[in-house]
Fold this protein.
Amino acid sequence: MDKKHRVLIVDDEPLILDLLKETLKRRSFDVNLVDRGKVALKTLESSHFDLIITDVKLPDVNGMDILRRAKKLPDSPGVIMITAYGTIKHAVEAMKEGAFDYITKPFEIDELEITLDRFFRVKRLEREVDVLRRHIQDEFSLEGIIGKSAVMQQVFEAIQMVAGTNSTVLIRGESGTGKEMVARAIHALSPRKKGPFVRMNCAALPETLVDTELFGHEKGAFTGAVGRKDGRFKAAHKGTILLDEISEMGFHLQAKLLRVLQEKEVAPIGSNKTERVDVRILATTNQPLEEWVKQGKFREDLFYRLNVVPIILPPLRDRKEDIPLLVQHFVEKICAINGLPKKEIDKDVYKLLQEYDWPGNIRQLENAIERALVINKGDVLMPGHFWFLKKEMQKIAGPTANCKLAGVNLRELEKKAILDTLAKNRGNRTKTAQELGISVRTLRNKLKEYRENNEVPEEYIIWVYESKD
């Protein structure tokens, strides 16, 4: 049996409440009636609804407040506004803020039922799309790593192949490509998955501290050693240790690590005794270790001990077909973490993001998406929300001093200069006017003209409408 749809109706007119109640009860909906906006807001804190039908005008709280609160909920219900003829303007405003639709008083039952049918049909299609999206992501993901490209499928095969062994793995790739995620996936898919996963960033501490962190020390071994301390190798017993950025480990520690790999023993600082450890070692690097070996910067014997099974992660610029899946994943993840309403993604966003080479790889992509979501006030993520990325792409493309300007429309050239400078100065009109060599008054008039003629491209909207002196 299908789950009943739960509907909250908010209206201060008893006749409207009764009419809506009878109509929805007849369709076997679970109906909750309230006649005050404040009661509705309180109800939303404790109960989940699939749909809210609310009057725009209420005695205490405006229907727009109910809409805004509903849109902030993790699994936000749809909202249909009821409005009198004189408040249609408010209903249109509500549509811009995410309401599904509005009906005007007096309304026919048929009109209401058509709107309800359309709403639940759209919701059903959205659920089907979500299921399909999750299916696609499950098919092209492994322990949270996402990729349908041939190079990433090869990485998945390598992870699954090596996970069941005790072999040492050297995970290589540029910064931001997800090396730690690969290490965690190997551990999670291994027989050691119930044991500890211990990470050590070799670049984060000076060599003296790395030594005691990895191998531990005895009481009195050095100034400040007021007690005995077990190192991270001991903490990782029966589990996995990840040596992140192994290239940053000094020669002294490289020799001690080689002994651990060969003998499966660690010697705490200040002790003459060794202790056996059962630990699988994974290591990562973004450096060309073969070259470092030739230059004498990394021990050759340790390199070969670590490089038993190499896994090489491709940079994002070599797997751009994965960007749409990554974007969908990060949008859902970031919205959930930050309590943001769910966002749709305009198809041109994928095209824009695939044009960029992403020097910071997946980490940079995730940060860019989070930044775009934070400045996005609508329900759809648009290319204009990545204005900062477009500026970076233009910078990489190089100066345009040698471009031919014959035939260029001077008004468009002026508008472009004004809007680009305003965006560069993050909406500061005074600074923009100074750089352009015009008065603030002239700048204001130009911006007013662009607004009135709807000539402001999306990527500049935030600066034109929220600019400041």
Q: What stands out?
A: The chain has a mean pLDDT of 84. The chain has four domains: 6-135, 147-314, 319-397, 410-465.
